[in-house]
Amino acid sequence: MKDRAMTPQAQTLTRLYTAFAALDADGMAQCYADDVQFDDEVFSLRGKTQTMGMWRMLCEAVQTKGRDDWRLAFSGISADARSGRAHWEAHYRFSGTGRLVHNVIDAQFAFDDQGLISVHRDRFNFWRWSRQALGAPGLLLGWTPLLRNKVRAQAGANLKKFLAATTRV
To answer: Which end of the chain has less Cβ packing within 10 Å, N or C?
Structure first.
């Protein structure tokens, strides 16, 4: 069977997750367009400043507390000139509680004309995540909009504080 060469966009996704596995936010930043839109179960971000602020905040949290527990694996990368997808799994210690988390994420992407990521949408089971990250509150309330909104508000406040302390993209 003949090996198919990876598209430039699939190479971009591979670079993104390789950099993330190494907690290299600068490497990740090279994969995103300036006007990127990022959405997941917690964040809804617009622009490279917000998106990279989130990734930098997460990378720094892991580097500060929990590097020994950090592991990221990715697979299923496929992409053409316009869209792509990937599967990734992160093992880490949630900084808010110190609890170990294994998050399973499916990602979808859109690319701009330069082959950079212009849209990044991560999907994961919030209830599963909240049970691991938050313990009993996540188990009891993780399926409710109440807890999801509380987590979103706290994460947004943390990102706002982080962005105020740093101006790097």
So the answer is: N
